[in-house]
Structure formats: structure tokens, C-alpha cells
């Protein structure tokens, strides 16, 4: 098996597959309904009860025997005694004696013997006796038990992303908790002696730490959990010791993935590269811009190991790499049915050129009304201000060297 | 001013405006960057520093005076002494003496006197002296201070929804916290004597509480905060006392909106209706299906008051009403630039009929590839199992009575 550097640059797809392969499918955990939003259902959800659980009234009105009202009309009302009052929630519903009706509220159980509901609007709303001015069809305004679902039926299949309607359904069939796929936990490392925490004064030559903060947010937006470990030691042994300590843990903060940005330049002292090279993490190039220099692997920490993805340090490179490699891997690991960003076709407003042999991701703003996309900023990988105004990435294939105004381009939607 | 019931049914737009008018714009609070995801920026964000803050190298290589290398080539390399080693983060960068170069890493400050970077690949990578085999253009591989943004420039405008790139940008310009619009707080009430908590045994005539759970999740998915108050007292005075206690609070759990579902049937004893009628909350009809019976207003609680929206009790009616009235109102209140769900046009797969005079929202599944939408389930407002399989609402105008196969319909996207 040739090494990455021997084999030459990877395609975006090849490196995405390599990163995804580092993460196995996450296991199952049980969460209360209120915490299930956005989670992926781990097992099929079947109905513990039928819905509705019993025949019930679709209207406020009267439960009747339809045959007894066959001739009722405005001009020939039928008057019958009201034998019972049935609010919703009444659990001791008496059977309907022939020749009587029962006052009934929406959702209340239809009494045995009744076969139709007459809406209150078709009556004089009497409480002792009631005058009914319309002849109901048998079955009118009765919601049958099991009409929505029968008991035991599969309501949602494993892999469904849970939102308000799905959680409401689980509640409706009596489930207080749901089995969902565990979120991967990502340890985001911020390394670099030039970095200063936001809010602190900046010396000449220093910049504010932003990649770690940005990537931790991006991890959470992908549905995983993140912990940002800022300003880890620049000493290789101490750096490895910090990772070994985390990777050998057994709690929920044991990382499924360690994510770094920067620190992998050629030639210089770089803690990330020095601590990982030769220990299971490979570094190489991906034929893309921005984001060429990448690394990934399972870092051997002596007795334990942890999956690692190293992203380049320029903020735009870092975020584009996250979008291309890490986000889909995290979502696939937790069983998300759509790990990738939605991709749409749009017509380019303006012109773009792109180097041959490298897939380019340019920052864009999509106008959904006209179906056009315009570049924001330029190709420079340090232009985070432009990145922050973008809502999509314009995906230019490796073979593309120019795109003319109005030509179609593929666009990754970032804000959905 | 005529009352709602005198004026006749409201349109969806009229009732949406009435609910939105109950909620004033929320104020501003300051949150750490890590908590800013999904929040709406409350003030323009300006750059505290330029980006980049200083001229820096775009490559690992050597900082040079371009004029001194005018003739350098593979066949005629130029050798110069390496006067300094400049890693990223070095704050005491000496000026470059004529006739020397400085070894420099990506991101490190370009020394005074240097005007270009020669990438390490165009050299022998020497550390004492270096042989350079290419003549750089002045300015090559130098990222100029302020190229991305100048200090003081407005980077993001108030109203921007914050995600990873925007939060990364705030960090990059040194901001540890951001001013964001406060989330509205919603108190979701679950009322009804027929309701049983999921997980408990069900008696005949009882159903599981699901609307409150579903609506609380929907509120949080809209970006607001929710507290579910289950099984509130059925006694009108105690019910009002519970609300007065909450509404007169000053903490973050003081509700901006009280949301109820069900409990407003005509004719029967209904705590919500009885506690609110004549105290500032109006009940009436909206010309829509599902979700006709609605109510809203500012509930006078004697010395205090609170905004209330009452939704119908059938689960589908409840969720559709939330989508049509409450979600856009909550998002508008927190300054979201796009309060409404995205609406697209799709061709109907199959046929639909709809009653004249009522706007219908049917549950659908959109096939984005073919641009078609198919109904899930039927129009029945109790069919929550079908609702849970839908990813959109098919919006049929009041005047529409039938839609033929292949005709365009408006579709509200629920899962974005």
C-alpha cells in the first residue's frame, strides 16, 4: 500500500472517504422527548396504542343512533331525551340506550350503541331533551379507533430525524423517551504561539484565536458535541499526554474525533505535525482550493488511540475543509440520512477563473428568486470577512478553468 | 371597532398579523461566542482590528527584497545570508538588512524592508545561507494588513443570523462576546382532563398528552425558549392565579407568550376559554383548514397581563396553526430576517380537492429532484402519524376547490 505522499494528491472524495472511515457508527442512547429534537431515531418506532385509541367524536354535539333520526329535518325536528353528558376524558361511558342521545364533546368516546354524531349547530343545544333538525349518515363525525394508526404499526423508521411532529407522535402513542443515535464528541484543539484569546490585547505579530471557536460551533451545528481546548502545550510530549489522557477516558467527553487546524506547515517546528507524524496520522495534499494540506488517521498514543483530522490553518481553508470532510463524516456516523449539504444548480452572476487540476470552493451568495449565485470576496483563503457574508459554496470541478456569466454551477447551501 | 365574531372569519394573514402584534421586539443580551449560534445579531459588528492585523506571509519561505533577486533563476541562483528566523507569533521582528533574507513561516509578520516572499520550494531551504532559484515579483505572497477588512469597518449588520463563519469572524477581530436579540420565552400549557402523561397507563377514554410536548419542541426549533406546564388546574381561578404568578415575575421565565392548545370548544366547560373570555382574549374563526378555531389577545390578569395565543386541540390543527401564526411571530419578535418558512412551487403528484372559502394546508412530501409534491395522509386534522411523515405543507388558497395532477402548488418547507 503506497503512502498518501507517494500516491500523490487525493481527490476531495478520496479524502472525505478517509475521514469518514475513521468514525464508526455511534451507539444508541435514550433521551426524553423534550431533548430529542434534531436527533436521529435509532430504532423503528412502533405504536404502543392505536390512534385514536377509541372511537371518538370529531365535533361538539350529540351521539345518536342514526336510524332513529332518519326523517329529521328543519321542518320536522326529532326531539329525544339526553341520557348522558360526555366531556373529553370521561372514562366511564355508559352505553347509549335506544331512544336516547348523549351530549358529547370533541374527542370524547362515542358510547356503545351510538353510530353517528350530530353537530350542536344542527340542534337546539338542549341539555335535558334536544331537538335535532338533520338526519345524520351512519358514521358521521365519528373518528374510528385506529384510523390514524393501528397498535403495533411501525410509525417511524430508524434513521428518521426527529422534529416537533415526530416527537408529538411519539408522545401520542405513549412513549416518554426515544432511542436515538449518540452524538459524536469532538475535541477541537487550538494550537499556535501567535494566537491570543479574543478580548485580550494584541501584540504586533499576534492574531486572535478564531478557528477553534468557529470549528467548535460548526461541530455543534452539525449535530455533534464539541469541546474547545485552547492553547494546548507547544511541547510534543505534553501535547501527546493531553490527548492520551482524553482518549483513555470512559466518560462522555472521550473524543470520537480530535480536530486541529493549522500547525502542519512544512519545514518549521509544528506541534501537531511533530506529535502525530509516524504515529498513525498521514499528512498530504488534497487537489482542492482552499484546503490543500490535510491530514487524518488514528493517532497511536501508546495503549490507546484516537481518530484525528487536521485542517489547514487559514480560516477559510479550515471551514471549507470542515464542510467537505468533517461535517459529512460526523453526520454519517450518527446515522443522519442526509450527511451532505444540499447541493443545487445556479447560474453564475459574473465570471470566475479557476486553476486546472484543483477543485475550487468559492464563497457565494445565492439569489433563490433568480436562481443565480455571485461570488463574495475573492479566492484568498484568509478572507474570513467575505466568508461570513456568504451563504453557499460555489463548487468548481478540478477540470474547470473558467466559468462564464450565466453558466450553471453547483452550489452547496450552508444555511440550511 | 367590531369584534372578531361580528366581523366574521379572519384570513390567515389577518390572524398572523394579530398574533405578531402581541409580541414586541425583544431586547438585547450579550452572550459568549460559543453560545451565539443561531442567534440574531442585535447591533452592527465592526472590526476592532484590521484583518490581517499586519503584513504577513502567505507561504513558508523567505522574506526578501525583490530587487536583490531580479536575475535569480534555476541556472543562475542567488545565494544570500539568512539573517533571522520568523515563526508565526514572533512579536519582535527585526527589520530586514539589505543583502540578507529572513526565513519566514506562513502567517508570520513580514519584516520591515522586505517586499516579497520566496516560497521554500524555490530555494535549497538553507538556514544559514539560502540559494534562491526564482526572481519574485514585488509583493509576491505577501498578505497586506487590512486586505480582508480595515479597522472600524462594519463586518456584519444588525439582524444577521449568526453561524460558525460569523462567530469565527467575531473571534478574529477580538470580540469574546456578541450582542444578540433575546429569545422570546413561551409558556406552553397543556390542559384537558382526558390527557395522560406518556409512559403512564391509559384508561378507556383517555389519550396521551402530545400537543404540549410537540409545541414546546416547535417553539425551541423556532429559536425561542419554551417551558411546558402540564396538567394545569382545571379550576378557572386557580388557572388564572398560575398565569398571574408567572406574568408578574421579572426573571427569564416570565413568558412573552402563553400558548395553549385545545380547551376552547363551544358549549362545554373549558378552562382556557372560561378563564380568558372577557379578559382581553378574543376567540373566533380563521378561514383555514385545519385550524379554524383560534384565539389571541393580551390576557388581563389584574395588575399584570400576558400575550396569549390559543391553538385548536387536534394535533395537526395545532401544529399547522403554530406554523402559520406563532412561529413567524416569534421569529419576527427576535429580529429574524426571514420569519416565515421558505415557500417553493412544486407540481402536485395526484389530485386534491379543497372546500371553497377556506385556505387549506395539506401535509406533503416534496421530491426536490423532480420538483413534485405528494400528499401524505388525508385532510383529517387528527392524523398525527401522517403529519410525522410529512416534510412540507401544501398551501391551497381559499378560492381553490381542486388541483389536478401536475398543477403547481405552493409548498412550505418544514425541515429547513
UniProtKB/TrEMBL annotation, chains A, B:
Pfam families named among the record's database cross-references: MoCF_biosynth, MoeA_C, MoeA_N
Entry-linked InterPro entries: MoaB/Mog-like_dom_sf (IPR036425), MoaB/Mog_dom (IPR001453), MoeA-like (IPR038987), MoeA_C_domain_IV (IPR005111), MoeA_C_domain_IV_sf (IPR036688), MoeA_linker/N (IPR005110), MoeA_linker/N_sf (IPR036135)
Gene Ontology CC: one annotated term: cytosol
Enzyme Commission no: 2.10.1.1
Cofactor field: Mg(2+)
GO term, biological process aspect, one: Mo-molybdopterin cofactor biosynthetic process
Entry superkingdom: Bacteria
Any one Gene Ontology molecular-function term assigned to this protein's record: molybdopterin molybdotransferase activity
Pathway this chain belongs to: Cofactor biosynthesis; molybdopterin biosynthesis
UniProt keyword terms in alphabetical order: Magnesium, Metal-binding, Molybdenum, Molybdenum cofactor biosynthesis, Transferase
Catalytic activity: adenylyl-molybdopterin + molybdate = Mo-molybdopterin + AMP + H(+)
Record carries keyword Transferase: yes
Biological function: Catalyzes the insertion of molybdate into adenylated molybdopterin with the concomitant release of AMP.
Protein name in UniProt: Molybdopterin molybdenumtransferase
Organism: Pseudonocardia ammonioxydans
